[in-house]
Write a structure and sequence with these properties.
Elements (H helix, E strand, L loop, with lengths): L12 E2 L6 E2 L9 E8 L8 E7 L3 H4 L4 E8 L10 E3 L16 E12 L5 E5 L2 H18 L1
Antiparallel strand pairs: 1-2, 3-4, 3-8, 4-5, 5-7, 6-7
Amino acid sequence: MYSPYGQVHLRKRQTAQIGIVNVSAFRIRQGDIFWLDGCRPLHGDVAKRRPVVVVTPSDLIDANPEVLVVACTSSMLPSNKTAIELPSRERTPQTRTGLYRRTWAVPEWLLPVQKDLLTEYVGYLIGQTLRRLLQTIAKSQDDLA
């Protein structure tokens, strides 16, 4: 399946019904990127489909029905100084994010999401970019306190 952000990788188990995909048999990990349908409106947008990055630590995911994700956008706002550009195939062909368009994770768009809504796996984020995203989220949470 193709989307503007990238090809959907089948790291999922097919259920008995054709066309229904289930990732519950696979472990969701910190740094995984999924499509989230009907992501709540962010920054004046309407609810729409967005890529999201799982930021809940991997060892806490199995014990909870929800995970924290950071929503992403392909329309960078110049006023947003904390958005982090994710590797995309447009700029880094060998990336494992599965994102084909330039995409930014917006740390202020931190959302709790039911794990069963994360069904369409895109790819994953690791290393320096994931660390930078997690540090920016932690800093923004400290600033709120």
